[in-house]
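A protein record pairs a chain with a discrete description of its three-dimensional fold. The following entry can be read in just this way.
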Amino acid sequence: MWGTRVIVPKKLQDRVLQTLHEGHIGVVKMKGLARGHVWWPNIDKDIERVGRQCEGCQELARNPSSAPLHRWEFPAQPWQQVHIDFAGPFQGRMLLVCVDVHTKWPEIVVMKNTTAEGTVEALRSNFARLGLPEQIVSDNEPQFTSAEFRKFTEGNGIRHVTGAPYHQATNGLAERLVQSFKHAVKADKSNRTLEHKIHRFLLVYRTAPHATTGISPAQLLFQRNPRTRLDLLKPSVKNTVDGKNLQDENRPFSVFREGDRVWIRNYRDGPKWVHGTVLEQVGPVLYKGQTQEKVWRRHFEQLRRDQFQLSPRQEPPASTDAVNLRAPSTADPTLDVSQPVDAPRPQQSQAAEGLKTTPSGRVIRTPARFKDFDCSGR
């Protein structure tokens, strides 16, 4: 005995090995079973030998270990190498799947039939939108090895490459897309049609970053992502610009009248601003102003009111100018009754002498309710 395990003599080892292999449970399980009961030198090697010599086990053995990974040469341009395959049936219909190796852009076509002629027509429709690839990779389905398909590829200068029979890994890119689509269809429990499910799947697949490239297929193929409902969560650039323009249009600005005394922006030698008078308004925001030298055209932003020349009665009224319409009041000691009512400029010039301004230059005006009273304090 060796612990709980029996040390089997050499002449009985073959019988013990046959007993361990009775259930054809495989080499790994045979070793596990032996470790709990028996032992002799090199028992693991003997168990492996019995497994290899069993004809029944060899007939049902799994595929050998995967060969070293052989990658396709990565194409330099989009839609240069395309993998195609059939998938289905889905709801009684077959699908033709196409995947671009460079961008991972998928195409799924619902087939009316899977004949060579139908396959060629489906590919011709795809190639009309995205162009002719240089190489097509497929398995050995009869549609892809037919004379009709060979005529189509040779006539369009497309190289057709097929993998080993029953070796799906050769066309693994298309196979993975098929698996992703199968999962999406099974997970979608809605009553949508097959076409609706395909379109939803393609939109998400094309706009989502791919695990291999880190970039969405649409971004690689078209240098932009198609608009999706997720874009509704982000502010629209156009709406933002339109809102800013509307805000700028509605921004209040000074309105100048003919005869207003203003400061005019000077772009010649001398002071930055010079005195002038508004002659006329020649546009929505454009004015002509008279300076001591000549007439200048200026934008309203290039004009400033001459605050020391203003009078409250020069400001544009909010309603009917009751000041000019009312009769002269004898209670107003500053009003010259000899002046006409409709000619207030001399009166305004006299009143302007007593105006006060704040340090910032804003004119301090007497409230309208005190317009008939002398508030000078004298």
